[in-house]
What does this fold into?
Amino acid sequence: MPQSATDILLAQGNLSPEQIAYLEKYTVTVDASVPAAEPVVEATPVPAESSSTTSEEYTIKGKTIFGDLILWGVPKATIEQIIGATMPDPAMKVKDYATANGLDFETLKTTLQAEVNKVKP
It folds into this structure.
């Protein structure tokens, strides 16, 4: 599914955690600079299921959205307390929120990561 379609669905805010996980797994970014006759799709190979979960799956990065935090088990109230405001659109990237609100992404990321680590040790 194209990233733009995923963004629209996440913006509606009425998806279950399972639906969000599905979108995360099957969303791709289409390179708009390539002519339509030769589309380029970035896809990440899905590794085989393993018996243990890697901590990297739950690491906040520049592309992490607020919906990921909710999906990972961080309570909405905790996120709101950390950012000092109501929860933004779940499709919004944490990094974009920090930039738009004059916050230091690295500081915000570290604080939110601590909460993620509490629920996903």
About this structure: The first strand starts at residue 29 and ends at 30. Residues 48-53 have pLDDT under 50 and may be disordered.
